[in-house]
Amino acid sequence: MSDKARDPSIAARLSSGRLHLSDGPIDLIIKAEGEPAAVRRAEAAARLRFEGLLAELVGELHWLRSQLGGTPPPLRGPIARRMAEAAWPYREVFVTPMVAVAGAVAEAVLAAMLEAAPLRRAFVNDGGDIALHLSPGEHFEIGIMRSPEEPRSAATPEAFVRIGWESPVRGVATSGRHGRSFSLGIADAVTVLAARAADADAAATMIANAVNVDDPAIRRRPAREIDPDSDLDDIEVVVEVGPLTEEKIAAAFAGGRERAEALIRNGRIEGALISLCGRWESIGEATKHALSLGGWGASHGRGDAIM
Questions:
Q1: Which residue of 6, 109, 126, 210 lies most exposed, with the fewest beta carbons within 10 A?
Q2: Has residue 300 got a pLDDT over 50?
Q3: The pTM is what?
């Protein structure tokens, strides 16, 4: 089914029963579980919150694409302010609030759903950045796959990370050079688990940027040459990674590991998984069990969240 009567956005019911909301670059997959009447109210609330959401962000795009400096930008909308809040801890390097846009959108839509109705489980997945809700005794299994370049429909998880209601994790996000956004680093993918989706989103980008090394096999281009609208402007982003020596791969992993461990110590994230050159590494307690199952990247779970 579709609904274009009130704005340009599209709402559809997928074959899995999940709700699909799309408007321009924002593409949400939503799952709600609970009493049927509660699910209907929650989905109606998701649609209502989604209406005009893109326009809300576009209205403050100047500040959202501007580098964070000494004072917070004068943002008005709750999603825009949440983006800036998640990006703020990283302002010692070049960063804009756009680093957390997908996670912040997922958070906002999920919050509207939970305000409208009590749910047993729910998630809002914005292109792989996921906001989760779990009631006591419930859990989600987030699937992980080796290649983040695979289409969602063809993705086959090789391992799973279990997130129980007792866990503080309610946000999962993935970044890297194969993702929707540009990366300064060479990681194939970095998946981060955090208390909130916007925080996971920002941290995933920062860790992916830190998985880096200089080598002639790495080709970079200014972001604006690839996308004139990129908030990264003339900063060089990775466009190709050729064969690397063992030493270079180890050095790149070390950079990402150091950044991830620091974020765990500071309480900003719960864990991370790093994929590079067909290898992967787990950092933190929240992701350690994925190692025993073997696999990498973020994708769909056993009937649960799709990344």
A1: 6
A2: no
A3: 0.89
